[in-house]
């Protein structure tokens, strides 16, 4: 099913970054150092920081540290990270809705039940395969970021169909992480990391749900006796650490993480990082009990996302994919 290649090895993380300590370390330096240490403890191997999937000899922590110091910190501001982006957008402009957008948002929220039932009814059988075969723009030079790898079903299909140059999977649950490492052990293009992403750096306790934990989420009732702890990192910082930028753009981000989709997209919408993502596909878990204002947040995401991207397909409140506007005529 897959292209035969050299064995994927689980490489150990580089030791804590080896910069010389000084007596005048700033607060910002300390925070970045702490974040780097946390992240390296949750990676089995080095994250690539160069284009074309070449192995970088540069420390991960030094990479994120230098990028956040020399460029705009995407977690704190809404500025561009690179000079190649021509249009500067202030954070207020990014997050504010126009009157017309507000009206559409209100209509979207009011139509939730109708749209959800319609999308859910259609999303059956072969229709669900669109989340795998829709991405005909992918090729052996493409990069994919899969947030919420689970058992690797989506990854297996996309890799088999399009054989991208680089396929990155983030999966915070240890059971699934180990499964993914074993499943893709012979695929040189696959990188698997045991952490999730959201708006903050945190360790979260979650209840395992489903026979194999496949429905586990931080947004469900946490009363189960079967619990585990997962590590979450800020998505904008992870995006940079993975080496993506205006010059090295991400071809596809696919998100299916039991409710974290909202946080991930909202955090990216605070920055211009969305402009560096050519295609965004995500599931919507709007029925999770402890997910705050899912209908409103979903509809708001729709309005903000439509400024930079256009719908490729949509089963509203279920699954959908968006393509960056400047690329629509190119494919």
Comma- or semicolon-separated keywords:
single chain, 331 residues, alpha/beta, Rossmann fold, seven-stranded mixed beta sheet, three-stranded mixed beta sheet, globular, disordered N terminus
Short description:
32% of the residues lie in helices and 16% in strands.
Q: Could you describe the 3D structure shown?
A:
By secondary structure, this protein is an alpha/beta fold. The chain has a single domain (27-82, 89-327), classed as 3-Layer(aba) Sandwich (Rossmann fold), CATH 3.40.50.150. 32% of the residues lie in helices and 16% in strands. The protein has helices at 27-40, 60-70, 91-95, 99-110, 112-122, 130-133, 153-162, 174-183, 235-241, 260-268, 294-305; strands at residues 143-147, 166-170, 190-193, 196-198, 202-207, 227-234, 252-255, 279-283, 309-315, 319-324. The chain has a seven-stranded mixed sheet with strand order 3-2-1-7-8-10-9. Strands 4-6-5 form a three-stranded mixed sheet. Helix 1 (27-40) runs antiparallel to helix 2 and helix 4 (99-110) packs across helix 11 (294-305). The model is unreliable at 1-33, 48-89 and 213-217 (pLDDT under 50). It comes from Mytilus edulis. InterPro entries: FkbM_mtfrase, SAM-dependent_MTases_sf. Residues 41-51 have a biased composition (Basic and acidic residues).
End-to-end separation: 26 Å
What is the CATH superfamily classification?
Answer: Vaccinia Virus protein VP39
Q: What structural category do the secondary elements indicate?
A: alpha/beta
Percentage of helical residues? 25-40%
List the helices and strands in order.
HHHHHHEHEHEEEEHEHEHEE
Tell me, what is the CATH class?
A: Alpha Beta
CATH architecture: 3-Layer(aba) Sandwich
User: How many strand units?
Assistant: 10
Q: What is CATH's topology name?
A: Rossmann fold
Number of structurally distinct domains: 1
């Amino acid at each position: 099913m897959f292209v035969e290649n050299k064995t994927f090895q689980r490489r150990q993380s580089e030791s804590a970054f080896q910069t010389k300590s000084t007596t005048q370390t700033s607060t910002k330096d300390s925070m970045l150092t702490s974040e780097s240490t946390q992240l390296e403890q949750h990676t089995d191997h080095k994250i690539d920081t160069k284009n074309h999937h070449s192995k970088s000899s540069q420390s991960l922590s030094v990479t994120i540290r230098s990028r956040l110091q020399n460029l705009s910190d995407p977690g704190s501001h809404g500025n561009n990270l690179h000079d190649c982006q021509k249009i500067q957008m202030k954070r207020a402009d990014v997050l504010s809705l126009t009157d017309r957008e507000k009206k559409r948002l209100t209509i979207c929220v009011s139509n939730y039940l109708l749209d959800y039932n319609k999308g859910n009814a259609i999303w059956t059988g072969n229709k669900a395969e669109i989340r795998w075969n829709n991405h005909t723009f992918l090729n052996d030079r493409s990069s994919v970021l899969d947030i919420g790898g689970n058992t690797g079903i989506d990854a297996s299909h996309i890799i088999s169909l399009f054989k991208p140059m680089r396929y990155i999977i983030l999966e915070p649950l240890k059971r699934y992480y180990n499964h993914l490492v074993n499943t893709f052990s012979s695929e040189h293009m696959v990188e698997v990391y045991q952490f999730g992403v959201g708006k903050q750096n945190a360790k979260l306790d979650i209840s395992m749900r489903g026979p194999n934990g496949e429905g586990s989420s931080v947004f469900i009732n946490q009363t189960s006796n079967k619990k585990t702890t997962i590590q979450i990192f800020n998505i904008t910082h992870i995006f940079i650490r993975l080496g993506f930028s205006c010059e090295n753009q991400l071809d596809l981000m696919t998100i299916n993480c039991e409710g974290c989709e909202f946080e991930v997209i909202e955090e990216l919408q605070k920055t211009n990082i969305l402009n560096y993502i050519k295609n965004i596909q995500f599931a919507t878990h709007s029925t999770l009990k402890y997910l705050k204002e899912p209908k409103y947040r979903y509809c708001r995401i729709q309005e903000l996302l439509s400024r930079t991207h256009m719908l490729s397909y949509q089963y509203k409140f279920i699954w959908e994919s968006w393509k960056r506007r400047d690329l629509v005529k190119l494919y």
